Amino acid sequence: MDTVLAITFKGGVVLAADQSNARSIITYQSNIDKVKELSSHSAIGVAGPNCDLVNFTQYIAKNLALYRLNHDGLKLSTKAQANFCRSKLAEALRKGPYQVNVLLGGYDEDVGGSLYYMDYLAALEKVDFGCHGHASSFCLSIMDREFRKDLDEEEAINIIDHCIDEIHTRFLINQPNYMIKVIDKNGVRISKFGGDPSDT
Amino acid sequence: MARRYDSSTTTFSPEGRLHQVEYAIEAINNAGTCVGILAKDGIVMASERRITSGLLAPAKTSEKTYKLCSHAACNVAGLTADANILIDQARIYAGKNHYVYQDPVPVEELVEHVCNYKQAYTQYGGLRPFGVAFLFAGYDKHHGFQLYQSDPSGNYSGWKATVIGANNQAGKSLLKTEYKEKAPSVQEALMLAVRVLNKTMDGTAASVEKMELFKMTVDDKGKCQHHILTATEAKDVIDSVVAESASAGDS
Question: Strand locations in chain B, DSSP E?
Answer without folding.
Answer: 34-39, 42-48, 65-69, 72-78, 132-140, 144-150, 156-158, 161-164, 211-218, 224-228
